[in-house]
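WARN no homologs supplied; continuing
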Amino acid sequence: MRSSRKSSKKKPKASASAPHSAAGVVCCKRLSLIGMKAMAKQLRRYIITMIAAASSGHPGGSLSAVEIVTALYFHVLRHDPKNPGWPDRDRFILSKGHAAPLLYSVLAESGYFPVEELMTLRRLDSRMQGHTDRGHTPGVEMSSGTLGQGLSFGVGCALAARIDNRAYRVYVLMGDGECDEGQVWEAAMSASHYGLDNIVAIIDRNRIQLAGWCCDVMNTEPLPEKWRAFGWHVIEVDGHDISQLTDAFEKAQEIKEKPTAIIAHTIKGKGVSFMENKAEYHGKAPDPAETRRALEDLE
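OK structure emitted
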């Protein structure tokens, strides 16, 4: 039975193995650990100021994932801001699209567009829309809005890499509340079925979603065991420890014939004392007094 089930899998032809450090690799601004920690602080300041300027946005889940995205863009990803469509670039897919301020901030610091453009968040005709738009913003891989779709999109990208014989990797950032969606688990089954070792799912495990604590809305525990049961290699880390994150991404590159899920334990609203672990700041912009206080915290 076991051998017949394996033989029934119709996998696309595997690509020739190629090191992830192949010639032509670009990491636009590779930073030291100290540099990445400083960058994380700067990204948090951008998130607060741009959401405050717009009087609208999602600070909590943007702040919780800062170190994750910092580690990716300034240590892990192969990408080229001067050529966003480079075929061999690694793909970063923001499935939790309401955290767009975080992605815009890291793209600006990477050089995809001027930092000053961040202050146009949510304005009419701005490239900085409330949810990411692949057709308008350089560096954005997927248009978002409805939760639960990013992993499916990422599986398609990972399959395309195999079919096209390309060595790029795919990284999908999801919220833990987003894991309530059935489509996430359909995609998880698919990635395991095809043995996609070129995709990494990162779960921002901040334990809070729009309506409150995740365990009260829809308890997904034990989350690591669920991902393992779906055939994924699982790594758990402190999602605010950049060293742990970079180590986890490096380990994920060594895993063969199965996808990797990194469960990053984080704090909603991290870095701003009055936002931390507060569900109301999932989608609440700070007023002027709160903005001043938040920026003081971030100093």
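The mean pLDDT is 92.
OK
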